[in-house]
Amino acid sequence: MPDDWQRALAVVAHPDDLEYGCAAAIAVWTDAGREVSYVLATRGEAGIDTLEPARCGPLRELEQRASAAVVGVSEVAFLDHADGVIEYGPALRRDIAAAIRRYRPELVITLNHRDTWGGTAWNTPDHVAVGRATLDAAGDAGNRWIFPELTDQGLEPWDGVRWVAVAGSSSPTHAVDATAGLERAVRSLLEHRTYIEALTDEDPQTYARTLLTGFAEETGKRFGNRPAVAFELFPR
Ligand SMILES: [Zn+2]
Question: What is the pLDDT of residue 70?
Fold first, then answer.
C-alpha cells in the first residue's frame, strides 16, 4: 500500500463493516501517527433480529464508537441513511462528498462495492450502494459545481483524494502487513458484543479471534505469508 499520506477516511454502510478485517490495518496506520476517521451511512438499526430498530440503532452507535477507539480512531460520524434500504444516488453521493470535504483525506477506504464477494457469495445492496457512491464521491468532492450547496455550507472542494481502497474485494491489488494490528482488531470486533451475541452461540472471544486470524492468514498467502489486510486500490 502507498504510505505517503497523512489522513484517511473510511466510509462504510454499517457498524462492524470495518471490524470484519480492515481494523487491523487501521491500527497499524494510527500507530504510525496517521489520522483515520470513520463515516457510517447507517447506525445498523436493522441488523439484530431480536432488537427493534429504535433501541438497536443507539446501541450499535455506542458499540461502533468503542470499537473505533480500540484502533485509535476518535472521529466517527453517521449519515442517517436507512439500514437495509440505502439508495445509491445523488443524495448518498452528496453526503459522502460532504464528509470527504470536511475531513480532507488523501486515502479513502470503503467496502466491496461489487455484486458478490467472489464466486456466488452475494453481497448486500447497502454495501454495493455505499461502495459505489464512495468511489464516485471521491471525484464529486473536488468539483465545485456538482453539489454547489456544499460550498454554501462552508465545505470547500477537496480534490486531494489520491486513492480509494476497497476492502473485502475479491480482486485485491495491495495489502498491509497486519501483524502489529491483529490483536487490537480482535478487541475492536469484540466491542460489537450485542451484534455478535445475537449472531452466534460461540464464545465471542473464540469467534472473533478465529475469524480475523483466519482472514489475515488466508490473505497473507498472496502477500509474503504474513497476516495481511488486502485492498483493491483505485488511484485517482
Ligand atoms: Zn455491512
Answer: 98
